[in-house]
Amino acid sequence: FCFRLFPLREHGMNWRAKPLTSQEIQAFKRSKEVMERFVRAYELMLGFYGIILVSKETGELKRAENWADRFENLNRFSHNNLRITRILKCLGEMGYEHYQVHLVKFFLTETLVKGTLPNVKRSALDYFLFTVRSKRRRRELVHYAWQHFKPQEDFVWGPKEKLQKYR
């Protein structure tokens, strides 16, 4: 299901899912209808995870009313982390980098600050963070993660000297 809604230019876990070509991605981006469907699919998956897209323009997110039940599902079943990684990569492919940033920050906040998704923490740090295409925004997110990671001296996702000097 997820591989059909969020295709990539790489092979995933499903051997039947055919990788996208650069030409197909460009054709998708030129179609207003395809891009609107893509955003609807993103909203659908967010809803499944207990998240609401507050603003299509900015990508801002918040918890849905059913977040506690949905987060329990996210914590229990790690295959969701693969799907989220796929969604994040696809957002980047389709030109929605600002959506990537908000989704990664959402998961960093829920795992590191609020502690609601402890079983998603490693995926958020090991995979979600590094799907963000913008080097500047990725650095900001790594710094945000470092600021909230406990114990801070065990943070391995960026050089401590640079994280301490980051502005």
UniProtKB/TrEMBL annotation:
Lineage: superkingdom: Eukaryota
GO terms assigned for molecular function: opioid growth factor receptor activity
Pfam families: OGFr_N (PF04664)
Cellular component aspect of the GO annotation: membrane
Domain Opioid growth factor receptor (OGFr) conserved residue range list: 5-164
InterPro entries referenced in this protein's UniProt entry, alphabetically: OGF_rcpt, OGFr
Homology family: Belongs to the opioid growth factor receptor family.
Protein name: OGFR factor
Organism: Onychorhynchus coronatus (Royal flycatcher)
Gene name as annotated: Ogfr
